[in-house]
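thread: overnight batch results

M.L. [08:02]
morning all. the overnight job finished for the chain we discussed friday. pasting input first so we're all looking at the same thing
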Amino acid sequence: MTDSARTPTPVDTIAEAWVDDVAELYPTVATYIGRDEYNDRYGDYSPAGADEAVRRVRARLAQLREAAPQDAVDEVTKLDLTRELELSLDVYDAQAHLRDLNVIASPAQDIRSVLDLMPTATADDWETIAARLGALPAAIDGYIETLRTGIASGVVPARRQVTEVITQIARYTADDGFFATFAGEAAPDDGQLPASLARTLSDAAGGARVAYDKLAGFLGSELAPAATEQDGVGRELYALFSRQFLGATVDLDETYEWGLEELSRMVAEQQSIANEIKPGASVEEAVAFLEADPARKLHGTEALQRWMQQTADRAVAELGATHFDIPEPVRRIECMIAPTQEGGIYYTGPTDDFSRPGRMWWSVPEGVEDFDTWRELTTVYHEGVPGHHLQIAQAVYNRGELNAWRRLLAGTSGHAEGWALYAERLMEQLGYLEDPADRLGMLDGQRMRAARVVLDIGVHLGKPRPAAWAHLGDGGSTWDAGFALEFMRHNVNMSDAFVQFEVNRYLGWPGQAPSYKVGQRIWEQLRDEYAAAAGDAFDIKQFHKRALDLGGVGLDTLRTALLSGSGR
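M.L. [08:03]
and the structure it wrote out:
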């Protein structure tokens, strides 16, 4: 990791203290960033836990407002952390925590998924896992208390999310599900698991299964009857979530119209490339042609994992020699098949000391056995280098200049995912997608991201169905879940199980899905504005270095830092 003569400032001290608060309040987040001292526990998921978190936010915010920045680094830290803490108070006031249940990123998943990141090499590691499993029932009880408070307050999630999560939990708790398999396959790298520990682990895993079954029972008997049939959350709440995921305020109506235009442009670009692949072919015919090509297929998750790793390693080696300065610890990335079957593809950053490297995870839906390399190549660049791994691991590496909050916790989905989509296009510009099939795959992903800008805003704001797509669905006049599903089926070339999961994700996680494409738009706008200001002196490599050296920040902060002449 880099060293620097920069002396920590009072602003750094406050930011570091906030990281300590977050680690204590949210031990699952602590695990994610490599703070192992909390690996044996969970946070308080009850309403009292949310109240305590807000008390800490207000205390740190008061300190931050009084602190005077000492340099350009402090200016960015104070601006971005102040914005984040103030927004968290707005989200709390909106009672969002009382309805925090969805199919991908809520306590229902997080309480389980943190176990994927815990060390397993030694018997002591498994002792810690057993302790956390033992604490899981209390975490579930606190979560149920919060959701029950939401019922009493009339603040509830959509019924669709409730029923889907019940289905997920059934997979967790089945006799061949996650908890049984996790405990049954426990084996440290340094020898046999002691018999007493094996029994403790088995008992704790059994208790975790019972707790999750209790959660499923509550969801079915209490929350589902009280939940709303309405998937959309409305303009006011949606605007709040959009700000949270972007770290920027955008005009939602203008963004919706831009999304329609961008989708139309993606369709036209795909059609042009389809003609290159097979003269006269439609996009659908070109896709069918590629899917029938055995040379472009992988069979089974083991083959997928090997191909992911080889592709990622090659990108690191080649780009590190030509277009980016990639430090040695950042050159290591692990490609993993996730132990779940939810359908997501995601990245988890390295620990602060790089003892756990950055990892690309693929959660393969049940029954999916074949994978198309032309479709997935750009995903590896998105999650790896020059995408998330370069972006996030570079910030972790820059510990000599950035405090722990800036390295490990700061940033938004719009910053991270926007950069990853920006990186996909960059790889095309650098010649890594010369094969028309690979470019079609990249555009397939870009088209999906444009489509969900339209879908997400359309559903949650109750927009009229766009005229160009009005022939789909049941003939209704406004966006709803049924129309959203048909709209996505016509705009992606993926398995229907994946499409259904994706649509349910958008319906339950408002504002997150558009942050990818909107974030890319803002990144590209900032690059162009930066280039215009620099004139002939503009250097794209220098722009990328300066932007990534900032670490994760909200997109409004990124704009201020890059265009105001601030340093880092």
